[in-house]
Amino acid sequence: MRAIPLKLIEDLRNLNVSRPLRFMEVCGTHTVNICRFGLRSIFPKNVELRSGPGCPVCVTPASAIKIGVDLALSFEKTIVLTYGDMMKVPGPTMTLADAKARGGRILSVYSVVEAIDLAEKERDFKIVFLGVGFETTAPSSAWAIKEAKRRNLKNFFLASFHKLIPPALEILASERTLDGFLCPGHVSTIIGLKPYEEISKRHKIPCVISGFEAEDIIIAMLKLIEMAEKKEYMAFNAYKRAVKEKGNIKAQELLKEVFEEEDTEWRGLGIIPKSGLKIKEEFSDFDAKIAFKIKDESVKDIPGCKCGEVLKGQIYPYECPLFGNSCTPEQPVGPCMISSEGSCAAYYRYGGLIEP
Amino acid sequence: MCLAVPHRIVRVDGNEAIAEIGSIKKKVRLDLLEDVRIGDYVLIHAGFAIEKLSVEEAEDILDAWKEIEEAQNEG
Ligand code: SF4
Question: What residues of B are in contact with residue A134 (Cβ under 8 Å)?
Answer without folding.
Answer: 2
